[in-house]
Design a protein that fits this description.
164 residues, alpha/beta, Rossmann fold, 6-stranded mixed β-sheet, 4 helices, 6 strands, 27% helix, globular, Histidine phosphatase family protein, His_PPase_superfam, His_Pase_superF_clade-1
């Protein structure tokens, strides 16, 4: 019997966040608009698994997709083994998987799934969407980098030290 494996993994950073509280802010108005844009972007690729962290901003980013699909998100703690735990959960899923993470975790998760090593996303970068197809049946893994929602501001891809 073949082991379960996702056919497609869509990875995004959480939407824009409020400045406070620093430890677990909610989404800002722009972040709520981005979450709505994510739901529209995924209208043709309904996820059967949604992975988020325990932070409000990742859960709120996935909320419109959760509401439409009725899928209960898998919440994975931001611990030292976070990237591996997310990759393990993704690779046990089948069909389309949505992962909502952070500027410093999304690229590492792509790599842990068998994709290329990517730099962390810049702190001002929120529009990037990674569409990853894991290696399967002799085919190499494929990664498409795209964007969704309102484009990032000019210079958003020039990094200062990132925050989660």
């Amino acid at each position: 019997m073949a082991q379960a494996q996702p056919s497609l993994v869509i990875l995004v950073r959480h939407g824009e966040k409020q400045p406070t509280p620093a430890n677990d802010p909610s989404l800002s108005e722009a972040g709520v608009a981005r979450a709505d844009a994510l739901e529209k972007a995924l209208a043709g690729a309904t996820p059967g698994t949604i992975v988020v962290t325990a932070t409000k901003r990742t859960q709120e980013t996935a909320a419109a997709v959760v509401k439409r699909t009725g899928i209960t998100p898998t919440v994975i703690a931001l611990s030292g083994a976070h990237v591996k735990s997310v990759a393990d959960a993704v690779m046990k899923a089948s069909g389309v998987v949505l992962v909502v993470g952070h500027s410093n975790t999304v690229p590492a998760i792509v790599n842990a799934l068998g994709g290329p090593k990517l730099p962390d996303l810049c702190d001002a970068s929120y529009a990037t969407m990674f569409v990853f197809q894991p290696a399967r049946d002799g085919r190499a893994a494929q990664l498409v980098t795209s964007s969704y929602g309102t484009p990032d501001a000019p210079g958003a891809s020039t990094c200062a030290p990132p925050s989660r």
